Each structure stands twice: as C-alpha cells, then as structure tokens.
Amino acid sequence: MTEPQDGASMGVLFDIDETLVDLRAAMGNTLREISAEQLAHFTEADWAAYQHLYAADPLGYYDKYLAGELSFTKQRLLRVAHAQHEHGLPRWDNDAEEAWNAAYEQVLPQHFAAFDDITAVLDELDALGIPYGAVSNNVHDYQRAKLDAAGLQRITVLVGIDTVDAAKPDPAIFLEGVRLLGTDPARTLYVGDNPVVDAAGADAAGLRGIWLERSGDAALRDEYPDLTVISSLKAVPGLCGLS
For the chain, how many structural domains are there in total? Predict the structure, then answer.
C-alpha cells in the first residue's frame, strides 16, 4: 500500500452538487418527467434550453436563498417561473405552483445519481486510510438524503450551511469539515466545481482548493490561472501527496 508522505494528517472534503452528485441531470430529468404533458409541444431544443435555464439560475435566486432573502422553495419556484417566462408560457397561480413543487419534490430524489468517477476514488482513499467528507451549500439533512439516494452512504462526515450558520466561501464552513475529519487544514483537499466559491474559497480558508472542471474548456480555465484544476475525481488520490 502507498503511504501518505511524512505521516502527516491529511484528508479530502468534497462539494456535493455537480461534484459527487449529477444534480443538473437529476433536475433536468425531473423537469421533463413532471412537465411532459404540459409541455408536449416542446422540441428537443426547447427542452435543452428550458432545463439549462432552470439549472443555470442566471438571475441568482439560489444565492438569494443562501443570503437569507428567499426560502428554499421560493428560489426553486422563481427559477422555474423564469424558465416558463422565457418560453412564453403563462404564469402559474398559487395552486399550480404548489402542485408543481410537490411533484418536483417527489420525483427529484428518484433521479439522484453519483458521477461514475467517485466510487473508485473513495475505495482508494479508504485503502490508504485517508478520511473524507463533504461540505455543502445546502442544509445538512437535505444533503444527507441526497447522498444516500445517490448511493454514497459511506460519506458520513457532512457539513451543511445550518451546521455552522455559514455558507461557502466563509472559512467557518470549510474549517468545520476539517475539524470533523481531524486533519490538518493545509493538508486537506477541498474539491468542488465552482472556481470561486469552492476552490478559491477553500484556499482562502487555509485548505488546498481543487477546482473540478469536467468540460476541459481551456478558455474557462484560463480565467483562473492560479487555481489547481482537475477534469476528473480520479486525480484526487494523486493530489494527496502520495508517493
């Protein structure tokens, strides 16, 4: 077995959405499943644009939720309302919103799935005795259920925004994950798909921020030349300072 260098206490913390769990695919599949009858006239291009608008959240409603300006349900409803509006669809009344949200909440967990590069990575970290966990910009219990639905029950250390009443990139939320792992911050990787909130935020908190950028977009990567970037989670064990 390869051993960690210097015997120092090291660990790995992961973001969840778009890092461990393919949330965009889950949201897109859910939107299509619960709206298939209403939007039967949509072409494939319509569906792609509709799903992208909802997932991308260009008006920043999820950030407003994190700032305490919106409830979790309200940010979701505003995101779908924006997608509806951009496609020339009528505005829903309160009853229609409630019905849509209930259907969405019921169907979404059925589509939670882990990315296919995580299981082997966790196997290797287990074999090396390197502890790992997750730090997420959502509440603990919601993300716990998401990890479990995606088959990632083995990730037992989990910090949500309600754990320390802070959201990334606040150092407190990263450092709580480090505390729970019992590791050295400077030797703890934080891996996430957002270059600013995840990678740069972790760096500022004293961890080793790693930007997971799966698309391989060179132009996008050039915007953040100072960040450590990987294209797959398979690179994580090699970044742990292993010989």
Answer: 2
Per-residue exposure over 199-225, b if at least 16 CB sit within 10 Å of its own CB, e if not: bbbbbebebbbbbbbeeeeeeebeeee
**Residues 72 and 173 reside in one and the same domain:** no
Q: How far apart are CA 27 and CA 36, in angstroms?
A: 14
Q: Looking at the structure, tell me whether residues 55 and 10 fall in a common domain.
A: no
pLDDT in tens, 125-163: 999 999 999 999 999 999 999 999 999 999 999 999 999
Q: Render the burial of 157-185: b for 16+ CB within 10 Å, e for the rest.
A: bbbbbebbebbbbbbebbbbbbebbebeb
CATH of residue 176's domain is 3.40.50.1000
pLDDT computed for residue 218 by the predictor:
85
Which pLDDT value is given to residue 9? 82
Give the contacts of 170 (CB within 8 A, at least 6 positions apart). 201
Please give the Cα distance from 28 to 50 (Å, whole number): 9
- What span, in angstroms and rounded, lies between the C-alpha atoms of 208 and 202? 6
Final residue in a domain of this structure, among 76, 111, 146: 111
Task: Report the C-alpha gap between 129 and 106 in whole angstroms.
Answer: 37
